[in-house]
Write a structure and sequence with these properties.
The model has no long low-confidence stretch (mean pLDDT 92). An 8-stranded mixed sheet has the order 6-7-8-3-9-10-12-11, with helices on both faces. It has 323 residues and is of the alpha/beta class. The protein has a domain of 196 residues: P-loop containing nucleotide triphosphate hydrolases (Rossmann fold), CATH 3.40.50. It has 9 helices and 12 strands. A hairpin with a 4-residue loop joins strand 11 and strand 12. Helix content is 27%, strand content 24%. Bound molecules: iron/sulfur cluster. The site of iron/sulfur cluster has 13 residues, from loops.
Length: 323
């Protein structure tokens, strides 16, 4: 199946007075139409910046500094701003931003906020019918259109912002931490909704989260992000059953298991590096239990069964016993 989305060597930096903060630095992945993907990593690893870069919604001083974002065969990173605003943002790529449900305007009804989006994007048709359809699509009663944000629960508000993102029927939906601040039951409902939209409506979903277990419920493939780079990409089954990168292995080991006899709490010593001045070579080097001399230079992407891993342990020319 051809790629729906291909991200090639994408970099997005924040240009500060002290130098560029390399929040996204040479990221590569591809997604076919039938796939959904999760991007997982610790806080401040660059995953939200990656989502904003794909939407071209980075706030100054952030900007895309290199690479390509090929959506349905077209490099949308290079489109003129007007072209992107009129023809791509929300129409082809939409995003549920982190905390978006708290940004609903308290003085307007849900229906008027949805109608405003349709109006701004030149929708021609029956506004009320479209609003009702989009609310139904996310499992809400169309009567919610006449209610104000404060009358809705957290889960209902999150469904509303997903409905907003889907209003113009985009091909790709990016959801950044869509279940943060929701209770566990509502989290499951939102994940089930995203899964349903992917399976039944054919929406390609890119889910950004710090929660590997949550992402694995919906994603066909997972990208593990560390210090601005994707260090491992693979099918969800491969990432779980046979994690290769030492960071992925440590992330999985850090998840407490209720029924395991191992009651020890595993954590990753040290902290992620500053993205203003990341270490040369492998960025995980200062925290990695397998670090070796070769790791002082930047590892390339070594192919795996279902993706790649950026780690010198998988260099077929390097005979290492550390793996
Ligand atoms: Fe560890 Fe080296 Fe692999 Fe980096 S390249 S993760 S330091 S073994």
């Amino acid at each position: 199946m051809p790629d729906k989305l291909r991200v090639q060597d994408l970099s997005a930096h924040y240009l500060t007075g002290q130098g560029p903060v390399k929040a996204v630095d040479g990221v590569n992945f591809a997604l076919s139409e039938s796939e959904s993907m999760g991007i997982v990593g610790e806080s401040a690893c660059g995953k939200s910046t990656l989502g904003s870069a794909l939407m071209r919604s980075m706030q100054a001083p952030g900007r895309i500094t290199g690479g390509a974002i090929i959506l349905s065969g077209e490099d949308i990173a290079r489109l003129p701003d007007n072209d992107f605003d009129n023809n791509v943002r929300w129409k082809k790529v939409a995003m549920v931003f982190q905390g978006a449900m708290n940004a609903l305007d308290p003085v307007y009804t849900i229906g008027s906020q949805l109608r405003e989006i349709l109006d701004e994007h030149g929708f021609r048709g029956d506004f009320d019918a479209k609003v009702a359809e989009s609310l139904k699509q996310v499992g809400l009663d169309p009567a919610v259109a006449s209610r104000y944000p404060h009358e809705l629960s957290g889960g209902m508000k999150q469904r509303v912002v997903i409905a907003m993102a889907l209003l113009l029927e985009p091909d790709l939906l990016i959801a950044d931490e869509p279940t943060t601040a929701l209770d566990v039951l509502v989290q499951s409902q939102i994940i089930a909704l995203l899964k349903k939209l992917h399976r039944e409506k054919g929406v390609t979903v890119l889910l950004i989260s710090h929660d590997l277990a949550l992402v694995s419920q919906i994603a066909d493939k997972i990208g593990i992000m560390y210090a601005g780079q994707l260090v491992e990409v693979g099918s969800t089954a491969d990432i779980y059953r046979n994690p290769k990168h030492p960071y992925t292995q440590a992330l999985i080991a850090a998840v407490p298991r209720l029924h395991s006899s191992d009651k020890k709490i595993h954590f990753i010593p040290g902290s992620p590096p500053s993205l203003l001045d990341p270490p040369g070579g492998c960025r995980f080097y200062p925290r990695c239990p397998h670090a070796m001399d070769a790791c002082k230079s930047d590892p390339p992407e070594f192919p795996t069964e279902s993706g790649y891993v950026r780690c010198w342990l998988y260099d077929p020319t390097l005979k290492s016993s550390a793996r």
